[in-house]
Amino acid sequence: MNAQAFYPIGTPGQPWGDAEKAQWLSRQTRQRSYADEVLSVIERLRPRFDVVEYGWLEYGTETFPLFAFKSRDWRDDLPVALVTGGVHGYESSGVHGALQFIDRHADEYAGRINLLIAPCISPWAYERIHRWNANAIDPNRSFRNDSPAAESAALLQLVAPVSDRVLVHIDLHETTDSDESEFRPALAARDGKPFEPGEIPDGFYLVDDSEHPQPEFQQAVIAAVEKITHIAPADANGEIIGSTVAAPGVIRYPLKQLGLCAGITDATYKTTTEVYPDSPRASAEQCNAAQAAAVCAAIDFALAH
Fold first, then answer.
1. What is the CATH number of the domain that holds 201?
2. DSSP 90-127
3. What is the structure's pLDDT at 201?
4. For 63, phi and psi rounded to 5 degrees?
5. Is 270 in a helix, a strand, or coil?
6. Residue span of the structural domain in which 231 resides
7. pLDDT digits (tens, 9 = 90+) for 234-257
8. How far apart are CA 268 and CA 99, in angstroms?
9. What is the domain count for the chain?
């Protein structure tokens, strides 16, 4: 089955050129406001935290400042907890879960660990409810030197001065029905490859680092989240999104090799969360709370071990 059967741009078997990318871009429409929904919250929280502008995106006539939170009582003798959200702009609870953690829980860690939190890494995609940036590039396959994605390059520059002190990194994501209906077909079409339908897991799961797995850490996060929302079961093949389930709700990827955000440091403890907001068993509020709980559990485990 070819990509053209599912996606209206491009020629089956041929990667996109500039014309196809321009056609794709012309179809993207602004559906929500980064300023109203994200920057306004950042401004509200600014009196309690140090807020740093770490980058500036320009797409056509549009510009987007990039902000991160830092502990106001930052101490060089403490390790760092890195929290990232909105690498894929359409994954709403990654953004709002990070902001909820900052608002409701970050104060609990004062004097115990330094917090560095980038809640919305891809604001252009946030507004379009999309996975890619305006250049049809997936930032979460682009965290490497000479990154083609400005979003990824900016975060790498932000983290570089403290990368050797990051103890724990939790990257907040979602798996949605639109992964199967839009984003995977678009990827196949863009790359000139056949689209092979998959199965969207119903529930929360984590992606551990296959090069340096931390099974106890992953299970601590799962245990915290399952109090809020359900954990994704394995499919009939014992897999979640095509990967073998290593433990309940946990799969493994080579994070650094794939250019994933969770692989940007050598943190001992790192994971990618995947919330399923389209489940009839989960609300947006639950998804945000699950992300915040995952952050708390990750930092708590790292501090205890």
1. 3.40.630.10
2. T-HHHHHHHHHHHHHTGGGGTTTSEEEEES-S-HHHHH
3. 97
4. -130, 145
5. strand
6. 3-304
7. 999 999 999 999 999 999 999 999
8. 24
9. 1
